[in-house]
Write a structure and sequence with these properties.
By secondary structure, the protein is α/β, with parallel strands linked by helices. The chain has helices at residues 66-74, 96-106, 122-132, 139-148, 164-177, 194-210, 222-225, 248-260, and strands spanning 23-34, 40-51, 55-59, 81-86, 89-90, 107-110, 182-186, 214-218, 230-235, 238-244. It has a six-stranded mixed sheet with strand order 6-7-8-3-9-10, sandwiched between helices. A four-stranded antiparallel sheet has the order 2-1-4-5, covered by helices on one side. Helix 6 links the parallel strand 7 and strand 8. Helix 3 (122-132) runs parallel beside helix 5 (164-177), helix 4 (139-148) packs across helix 5 and helix 5 (164-177) packs parallel to helix 6 (194-210). The structure holds adenosine-5'-triphosphate and magnesium ion.
Length: 261
């Protein structure tokens, strides 16, 4: 599918409502320490600015802070220090309730394990964030999105009646349904075979591109990272490298040099 198909869907999409700058997400000196007998410094001063419409891959060894970074950037978790701005709004200043409302409107999240609600149909799963936000879901929009992820006609299926790749595509449709400013995906292809993973990623990329959304994914796979506009490498809670216009070979070389450093 190419962007030349866009006129089919674009007319129903309003322009982004809160993007007053060209930066969709900004992290400034974000720290995250998990309390405990031995406090864990999962993020040690991460600063990032993600341009609107960009596709960023976050890479790094296990335990380097990738999931923590995504959770803090998405407002699912509260940083111990620093600031997170989404579409020009400083989310660190929001109360827990206001943050939940803000997230439902402006943030989509795709989890590695899909997180679909098992007793709800595909249709209800996709519409859930908007229903939870107390708004009337747009059924035609749901149909367009399910079509965009290749699941036209799957509305009444249950998550248990789907393959892994199909379930992940439902999760992507759900993340995009509220037309969020930014979509975060934590290893969205991690549980899939490489071919299914690539097709799911392609769906995420083309769909987000059509709607001008900003995407941030975590991945361990250089082939997946190569789809991004930019790769950010984390180690021990810090950004240690960046790579623009990555190829799988360049990503692999950079990973090996970081591992050797
Ligand atoms: N809820 C928590 N409580 C305490 N420590 C945590 C918590 N969540 C994560 N950590 C710790 O914070 C550090 C960063 O974890 P995080 O999950 O962000 O890593 P990651 O890069 O996503 O790793 P992986 O590739 O294995 O998913 C790790 O040392 C981890 O043990
Ligand atoms: Mg993780």
């Amino acid at each position: 599918m190419t962007t030349s198909d866009a006129p089919v869907i674009t007319p129903s999409i309003p322009p982004p409502t809160i993007t007053s700058t060209t930066t969709a997400v900004e992290l400034r000196e974000v720290h995250k320490t998990y309390a405990g007998a031995e406090p864990v410094h999962a993020l040690r001063g991460v600063s990032l600015a993600l341009p609107t419409g960009s596709f960023t891959a976050v890479m790094g060894p296990s335990g380097s802070g990738k999931s923590t970074l995504l959770s803090c950037a998405a407002g699912l978790d509260v940083p111990s220090g620093g600031r997170v701005t989404i579409g020009g709004h400083d989310i660190s200043t929001l109360s827990a309730d206001a943050l939940t409302r803000f997230r439902r409107e402006h943030v989509g999240f795709v989890f590695q394990s899909y997180n679909l609600v098992p007793h709800l149909s595909v249709a209800d799963n996709v519409e859930l964030p908007v229903v939870l936000a107390g708004r009337e879901p747009d059924h035609a929009w749901r149909a367009e999105l399910l079509d965009a992820v290749g699941l036209s006609g799957y509305d009444e299926r249950r998550p248990t009646e789907l393959s892994g790749g199909q379930a992940q595509r439902v999760a992507i449709a759900r993340a995009l349904f509220a037309k969020p400013t930014v979509v975060f995906a934590d290893e969205p292809t991690g549980a899939l075979d490489s071919r299914t993973g690539r097709s799911v990623l392609e769906v995420l990329r083309t769909t987000a591109q059509r709607f001008g959304q900003t995407v941030v994914i975590v991945t361990h796979d250089p082939q997946v990272a190569a789809v991004a506009d930019r790769v950010v490498f984390l180690a021990d809670g810090r950004v240690v490298d960046r790579l623009d216009r990555p190829t799988a070979e360049l990503v692999l070389t950079r990973m090996l040099s970081l591992a050797g450093a």
